[in-house]
Design a protein that fits this description.
A nine-stranded mixed sheet has the order 14-13-12-11-7-10-9-8-15. Strands 3-2-1-4-5-6 form a six-stranded parallel sheet, with helices on both faces. The chain contains ten helices and 15 strands. It has two domains: 118 residues, NAD(P)-binding Rossmann-like Domain (Rossmann fold), CATH 3.40.50; 180 residues, 2-Layer Sandwich (Dihydrodipicolinate Reductase, domain 2), CATH 3.30.360. The longest helix is centred in the last third of the chain and has 20 residues. It is an alpha/beta fold. The structure holds nicotinamide-adenine-dinucleotide.
Length: 351
Amino acid sequence: MTINVGIIGAGAIADDHCNAIHRYSGASLAAVAEINPERRDALKKKYAIPKAYEQWTDLVADPDLHAVVIALPNVLHAPVSLAALQAGKHVLLDKPFALKYAEARRVVDAARRKQKVLMLGMNQRYRQDSQMLKELVDRGELGEIYHAKAFWYRRMGSPKFGTWFVNKKLSGGGCMLDIGVHNLDLTLYLIDNWEPVSVSGQIYGKFGHRGIGEGGWGKSDCNARLKFDVEDFATGLIKFRNQATLELNISWVLHQEQADRNNVELYGTEAGASLAPLKLFRQAKPSGEYEVVVPQNVKIPHRYESRQFNWLDAILGKDKPLCTMDQSLVVQRILDAIYASSASGKEVRLR
Ligand SMILES: NC(=O)c1ccc[n+]([C@@H]2O[C@H](COP(=O)([O-])OP(=O)(O)OC[C@H]3O[C@@H](n4cnc5c(N)ncnc54)[C@H](O)[C@@H]3O)[C@@H](O)[C@H]2O)c1
């Protein structure tokens, strides 16, 4: 069977999706939907996509399609996913899941009802170093992981000003929802801990409102009336049922030495680990000497090509989604709680 895939949104990330789907032998890029005619035509031409729609509703209603990739502004994630699932399509949804947990929940319920593969495109999980660290953690090399620190500090890295990214109504939030979602999802995946009990968070808007820090990501058209009203720095402390903690720090804009710092650090009873570059910190056995190890030849039990291949394999029943719907709901709940805690000034209890 060939999976006929439609892509909705022909912006900055669409090419990555199309490139992968184009290379997958059991799939065909069959349609694109995009409101901007230049971007729609450019993608259609580059990948020889036979059908092009202006409205996503028309693509979702296309009976020839089995599956859709959603690469749209965040505000459209839940409604378009719901409509696609209701129309019987499998869905690969780019991050973040939704503006709010309640919306995400409805999407998951629809996927279960319709028995379709719904997967969030959490590409950081598929990195070679992520997969190697995951294997080391699963083997027990770190012992009990009781603390993690995840950060993505960009110095001058806001998406393009005047686009949906920086406007709360259309994006739901700033750096935490946009890139913090990656570090949060990746850390929970690495430590395999999906039982948060409380969240404290604080968000800050210190630069974008003053017209500072534009990095330029995004292809959407600018609209001068779309004002910057989201955070450009956010911090969160998440406590888990087993008393483990995660400190999460995320910026689009921050005064610091480097232009970009992004890492996940894990602290266990037997060793610590740093993801990028991958290193372990521990006492050597039996000498007790302290050593910093660059793991070599870590055998990864299952080598994933990409999030798109994993999703297509799952549709064909050849594999399971690496990123499950329940995991993505936990991530969304924590994100909601970071914003809620910041607004209330209080810790948010999750159970
Ligand atoms: N996984 C990743 O690492 C990653 C990276 C970048 C972006 N993303 C996510 O992908 C999504 C898209 O991001 P992007 O960078 O491509 O944004 P973008 O602004 O470059 O592109 C969005 C596209 O959607 C189109 N669009 C808007 N409303 C539409 C509608 N009603 N119907 C059809 N098309 C419509 C816009 O015209 C634009 O071309 C976002 O949710 C973003 O968070 C994920």
